[in-house]
Structures are given as C-alpha cells and as structure tokens.
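Look over this record as teaching material.
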Amino acid sequence: MLDDDPHNEAADRADHEAGETAGESAVTRLARMPDLGYSSIELEKIPRRFWEQTLAPLGRQQRTWIARRIADAELRDVAMELAFELDMAESGEADARARARHAALRTGHPLPSPPPAHATARSSVQVNLRLRRDDHERLSQASAAVGLKPTTLARSLVLNGAAMILREHGREHLAPPARPVYTPLSLD
C-alpha cells in the first residue's frame, strides 16, 4: 500500500465496524457501551427538573458527593436537601418492607409439609409455571415474608390448592390426609 493512497487500513476498519452496527438498533448499541460513572455527573449542568431522577438511582454517598461539588452555595443547599430527601425516602421504604416482613412472620400460619407416608422414593414429575414479572415479584415478596425460597412456596401453594380442590369435589381418597385449614397469606 502506498503512503499517498487515501484508502488505508484504519479507514477500512472504520467502514467495517460501521457496517456491523448499521443493522443494529440504537438501543442494542447503547447497551454495549459502558455506563458513565457518577463522578462525571455535573448536576448544575442538568436542568433542575431532572435532578431527582438523576440522583435517585445512585447510592447515598454518591448523591452527597455530587451535591457537594456544586459551586453555587444556594444550588448546593438545594441539591443536598434533595439528596437527603431521597435518602429518607429509601430508609422509609426499607423500614416499611421490614415491618411488613415482621408482621407476616408473626401473623402468618405455618406452611403444611407432606406427611411421612408421602415419601419421595419414586422419581418426581416436573411442573413448569410461567409468571408475569409482577406476579413473580409478589411471589418473591411473599416467600421472603415467610422465609422460604419462591420455588418452595410455589410448590406448597400448588400442592395445597390441589388437595383442597380434591377434598371439595369428593375425591378425598386422592388427596393427602386432611390437615388444619390455613388461611392463605395476602400478597397485596
């Protein structure tokens, strides 16, 4: 290749990379790019109406650090107050989750377990359930409240529900032995 040739390897490489990304969506290309660090955020350059959503995903120390970097004292005070309010809101949400978990543990009924006569000597059969994200989140919250894994709680709920249906429809011989009826936990 001659030095005066305008077409060089760097240009070929750039053309090739542009060709690879031409078929991709902007969202796909954006997902591959590294995130900017919180240290590159200059809050005073961001419109004030976006300050809350800029600071909300960050941690407490990061918010404070960003707010303290503002040169103007009045704006810095506002930013520090906003960071404090976001911290208090997060603390309130964490406290509410802890109180709900505690209340569920204290008022919830113990989950029944299979009787010893129901041994797992035989091979098992798998049942798959598809849940929407919001339903899975509710299942996860309920399982955390009673101290179980989501899969364990789902299995218990399915088996208990099947046993109740069999008892209600007069097929008690197919259902496991009757146990005290437990009221289901409210997932709301």
Observations:
- The longest helix spans residues 73-107.
- Residues 130-188 form one domain.
- Helices lie at 9-22, 26-32, 51-55, 60-68, 73-107, 133-146, 150-168.
